[in-house]
Amino acid sequence: MSDSPVSYGKNGSIGVISINNPPVNALSQKVRQGISDALEESLGDNSKILLIMCKGRTFIAGADITELGKPPVPPHLPDIITRMENHPKPIVMALHGNALGGGLELAMAGHYRCAIPGTKLGLPEVKLGLLPGAGGTQRLPRLVGPENALDMIVSGNPINAEKALKMGLIDHLLDEDIEKSAIAYANQLIQSNSDVRPTGKISVTTPSNSNLFSEYRNRVARKTRGQIAPDFIIKLVELACSSDIIAGQEKEREYFLECRSSPQSAALRHVFFAERATSKLPDIPSDTQPRDISSAGVIGAGTMGGGIAMCFANAGIPVKLIDTDSDAVARGMQIIEKNYANSMKRGRFTQEKVDAAMSCITASTEFESLKEADIVIEAVFENMAVKEKVFSQMDEVCKKGAILASNTSYLDIDQLADSTNRAKDVIGSHFFSPANVMKLLEIVRATRTAPDVVQTLIKLSRKIGKVPVAVGLCHGFVGNRMLKGYGRQAQLLLLEGASPQQIDSVMEGWGLAMGPLAVSDLAGLDIGYRSRRDQGLVSGELPEFALPDALVELDRLGQKSSAGYYQYDKETRARQIDPEVEALLKDIAARFEITRQTISEEVILDRLLLALVNEGTRILEEGIATRPSDIDIVYLNGYGFPAWRGGPMFHADTVGLDTVVEKITALYNSTQDDFWKPSKLLENLVEKGDTLSSLNNK
Ligand code: 3HC
Ligand code: NAI
Questions:
Q1: Mean pLDDT over residues 134-152, rounded?
Q2: 456 in the same domain as 494
């Protein structure tokens, strides 16, 4: 019996090529070989038309990503696609689930396309640092016009079959029973003597706007900053408008190979697998049954509580939002309404969607109303005594088996669990601000948290559109703990001579969404100030806090007071350098006897990135994170780290761990700052000639 994932058989006059390569029918070498063989076989029989379809939950979801980093093995996809397009018999492609990347490229080389309703069609290669490498940039504009093609390929976002039909990407919508209705459609095409229709022969419609491509480039410049694939894609769609398919595909191949061998694509492929790995915990069997979550409660209707309630509501889970008094509840509900109104204005939500979400949220001042909730998340002030009291109230009111979670940023969840009689049901669920937008959810496992509670949070995260990363207990967990060293380096660099603008521009130029000082201004400098006072730190005593302490005492709280590390325009929020900050820096540096001097871009990058790397590897050493790639996912989804750099741990491998340790050691030698002692893990890996990525296969 053949072990090919592709079979060929006849159904009347139809030659049926059937692909079965679970889980997503990726175009592995065996699949390509199987399609190639089936095309050959079909030439020798009396079939009048060919039908290509897939078994399982989806049509082809693209090239096999695991093969992309390895030398390509024939038959190559572009060759198969050319053969399909030039095949003498009409080919019908029947799609369901997802037709993505190479899958859609294959579909576009067929002569007729049909799909069941809801099928997703897209070219997501850009999300892997690639561009469609098998004719996608040339055939899609021929089928849907250059404007639609640009939108689909540059964003990488799929469209559904209904929209694809309107655009001309497919020809026919099937019934849910794909096999039956695809056969019926193919027979219909035979009866109407439908002939081959090579997509490559279609001319691209001329764009209605002659400046389409330059305007498009400007429009996406900010979002695609630093990445190589988007600009290639725009060039290729432009080329499709003026050249034949052969010349277009040649150029596409050249750019594709350049992208495929780029560090950006290696990084984004790492991210693809890293995102999926976070759900797999070595000590929790994957078949652990999660608890049912059909209703939720959130305590504290402030900045975070409101956002968290929105996450549940958006997923259709009824949620009770509790605060101490009716004013606080009303304020919280107003903010939620305003957020939804903004989402509608930006076209992200329809009125219907907003109405449905709002109907899921009930506000109250009564803890009693939480008694039926399957999970309750506490998001009250960051103060242990306040939170302990809330946890004991939750324990009193909530039903047996309900999960009690805390959104604390730093506090000890074991201590919160001690305020209850159900420590195994207590866990940290650390959302990021704004909670309804940011993708990351750090799931903090306390010492006694039950495995099924962890599993429930992982499943729930996916349901409410979050990327879960399970972490262990320590001050600041993974993300904020690493941020502490990073922020401290930024402050020391300021005292040593850098300006806020210089540090932020260097980091933003490197790819971060925002530099560290701009982020602090956005979050509000008073939060850290209050926390430092709560910890008993004296204002201005430590060099790394002297400037933010001074700024807060001058009522410069960040964007909310239009002044912090920068001055802000009240209308546009545009930031401007502020001479007052420069003067403060000079004074503070003199007080700490620090000589200010010119700081280079390289020093800024090294100090800030190596701070993340060194602390990240300590976190791994302590078992707080399961694997290096989990830390990368935390930084990409919670801290605006550029995905195309792969995350701080992946970046360390890219630089080379020997270089990393050399630089960290040099920093230790020059500062005698214990922070810069290289972590044992880094030293061990260097000694063995190993990488951090080698630890990802847990
Ligand atoms: N290659 C290899 N493995 C793949 C894969 C692919 N293209 N797509 C998915 N997988 C694997 C996942 O890693 C996962 O493995 P795991 O169970 O061991 O973790 C498994 O398939 C299931 O995937 P998901 O968990 O993501 O399943 P979902 O049902 O949530 O999502 C999907 C399905 C929407 C198809 C999603 O997997 C996806 O977006 N896949 C990638 C699509 C893509 O990027 N295609 C373009 C590839 S590049 C290309 O085609 C180049 C061409 O132009 C030449
Ligand atoms: P906030 O001050 O905006 O909101 C706190 C809310 O809790 C207020 O509405 C207050 O009235 C309410 N509250 C206080 N005591 C209460 C009680 N006993 N019962 C019911 N309600 C009570 O605070 P924010 O920023 O939303 O933070 C909440 C938690 O989330 C904190 O633990 C914080 O560390 C954490 N966090 C905050 C982030 C942020 O960026 N703001 C990010 C991630 C976590």
A1: 98
A2: no
